[in-house]
């Protein structure tokens, strides 16, 4: 997109750029401003214990509504933030917002529901990762046991003793640890034994056609059995219908998450959801 003009010099033609390149330029400009102005918000999706019909946690998912770009999905801007290093200040904003929202949740009377935060492998890889978390939590006068950290398989793949030690330190500090999108990487469960994980989240792609495909059922069933042997609880992502729910419950899956129960929603709406849930399930909130 650099053009040579008649006099042998180069100039920049924005109009000639293809749509993708224009989008990246806009995205870059807008995300930097958005970080400056803390334009990001969080939505929350409940995690349901299917045996006791209780809400055992909430996952925080970042949302970005921008004047120029409209709604930008985290699937687009998180990878961009990771490529550019902007993920570090962005992650700090997300964790601070999670602390603020936790205070709202507790003020509404829900004192024992932890919030799960998605952690970028880039942020996790910083040598001061634990310290940066602790600093934010102290600022908001809250403790690690109120949080779960979701890291993807990618974060633990090909990882050395240093990474294992980091997990152990986080666990000792009081954070609950989850492996997210399980099944999309290439790690085996036996490999995961080295990490002190509390939860294993089965990726949505395995849940999607589970009611129709016997092979998917066999894989999910095997993951659940093995995770339980390794003392991990299993969460199914992307549960959208009653057929999936019934199958997963029969297989002994501990917790479910998905549109069947609720889309990710702002905290005020989530609190409404919790109140309705309590009424419908005789006030049994864990
Ligand atoms: P994830 O952590 O695996 O989050 C689950 C994604 O599935 C979310 O998409 C959620 O809205 C969506 N989902 C939940 N239930 C259903 C369902 O029943 N059906 C379908 N079709 N989708 C469902 P979202 O919010 O667009 O996030 C996409 C990914 O972006 C996340 O995957 C996570 O990897 C990343 N992400 C989101 N928020 C954050 C964040 O705060 N920090 C970081 N580092 N990454 C984030
Ligand atoms: Mg997640
Ligand atoms: Mg996931
Ligand atoms: Mg996923």
TrEMBL record:
Q: Which domain of life is it from?
A: Bacteria
User: Domain EAL: where?
Assistant: 24-278
- What name does UniProt use for this protein? Phosphodiesterase
